[in-house]
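Q:
Just now I want nothing more than another pair of eyes on a protein record. Here is the record:
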Amino acid sequence: MGALRGPRRWAYQAFRTLPEPVRGVGDTVLRRRAETQVRRQPGFDPEAAIRLVIGPLNTAGQGERWTRAAETLPGVSARSMSLERRSSGSGFGYASDWHLSQAVLLRGMTQHRSRVLGTDGLPPATHVLAESAWAVLADPYHRRIHQDLEELRAAGISVAILIHGSEMRDLRAHAAAYPHSPFHGDWDERWETMHATVQRTREIVGQMAEQGVPLFVPTQDMLEHVPGSTLLPITVDVDRFSPGAARGLLLRARPVVLHAPSNPRLKGTRAVEEVLGRLHQAGMIEYRRLSGVPNAHMPSAIAGADIVVDQIVLGNVATLAAESMAAGRIVVAHVADEVRERQPGLPVVEANPDTLEEVIRGLLEDRPASRELAAKGPAWAREHHDGTAAAAALSPWLLAPRALPPATSPPVA
C-alpha cells in the first residue's frame, strides 16, 4: 500500500472490500500479469560471466548510463533497475532495463527476486550496485540493502553501494565549509528530514563498509562525505548532446540563459532567478527555466541555449553540467576549490549568488573568450563523462575474483 497514491489507492481499497472468492480470482490474475511484466523485461546475457544489476532508483538516468558503461568491459552483462514513482510527479522519462511498476511492486516482487537470485532457472546476478543503499530484492521503498546482504551473499552475489549525494551529504559540514550553502540558518522540516536520512544512511553505509562492501560516489565533492569511497563519474550519452556543439554560440543580441533545477533549493534557484530575471527585464538576455522536461527533450533544450546555469550553492558538477559541456554550451556553476583542484582545466565558469550577475555580464561582454571556453566542453565531456572513466572505476570490483555461489539456491521468501 505504501507505493499507492490517489485514484489507485482508492481503487485498491475498493477491490479489498470484494468477497474473498472474488478477490482471490482477481489477485491471481493481477499477480500473473505482474509476473509476466517481469519476465518480459530483458534478462542477462547467458554467456556473460559477470552479470550486474544497478538500482533501484536510476537517479538522473545514471543507473542506465553506468550499466551501458559496464557492458564495455569484457564478459559483462548489466541491467539497470528503476521504480515507478510514488507521487504523480514526472519521472523525466529515463530509460531502464527493469522497471518495477506499481503492479510489480504489489504482486510481482517474488518473480523479480527470483530473477536477481537465479532461482527461476535463469542465470542470476553476480554483482549488485545498490543506489542510495536501498534494497533490491523486495519492497525497495521501505527496505535498505543491508537487509538483502545475507541473501545476496548466500547466492554468491557481490554487493557495492552508490551514494548519489543528498542521502549522505553532511548538511552541517556543508554549511560550515560553504559560505552560500543552502543549509545555513534555521532548518525547516525538509532539512530536518534530510538530516535524519543522512544519519540513517551513514549508519547503514558504515556497517556495510566494515563488512568490506565497496562504496562509490558520482561527484568529486562526495568523496569528502563518504569516507573510503571511489569516484564513479557522472556518465551521459555524449553522442546525444554533442550535435548541439555545431550550433552558433552568443550570436543573438539577447543570448538565451537556461536554468533547469531538478531541486530548486539545492541549486540556489531563488538567487539565480533574481539575477537572470533582472537581466531579462533589462533586455540583456532571454531567461528560460526548464521544469519537468522529459529527458528525451533535453538535448534540443540545451542546444537552444547559449549559457546554462547549473547550481550556484552546492560546489559540485553533476549531470546537467556534463550534458551542457557535451553540447558545447557555456556552463556556469559554483565549484568548490577542492573539486577544481581534482579536475584541473574544468571548463565551468565559477559563480555564486554574490557574483552571478557580474559573471553573466562578463560572459556577454567578451563573447570571443566565452566561445573559446565553451569549445573546450565537448572534449572534456567525452574524456570524463562518456562512460569510459565509469567503466574503469567499476572494473576492479567487477573483474576481481569472487567466491563461488553455494551448491543450492537460497529459499525464496
